[in-house]
Hints:
The chain is of the alpha/beta class. The chain is built from six helices and five strands, in the order βαβααβαβαβα.
Amino acid sequence: MIWTIYLSGEIHTDWREQIMKGAEQTGLPVEFTSAVTDHEASDAAGDVLGAEKDNFWRDHKSAKVNAIRTTTLIEQCDIAVVRFGDKYKQWNAAFDAGYCAALGKPYITLHDEDIIHPLKEVDGSAQAWARTPEQVVEILKYVTTAKGI
């Protein structure tokens, strides 16, 4: 079986690449999907529907267009990894985690210890909390191959 892993959350560091590289080096039977990670493209996703004077409506349209991709990929994945960075608030990542929880979709949170408290409910529904991309790779290794960590 090839497992589909959805990578959600923070877009300003290379954590996705670290996980993908680790999975490849380990030979895991996985494929990866992700939300759009180009911030400007994501913000402009709804612009094709017409210009808006009010940023609320621009964001509203773009969020709906982006949701076509994110909800479809979350529904199709076997496991999601939801990354919360410490530089920006990732409300979209929290929403993705909640969507996974509502669907009964397993997810792993990835974040530093200093934001444990604000993420207590998100972590409470997660199947695992990892602090590093390497830990995520080890969890994926165990889950996808049944080989010890």
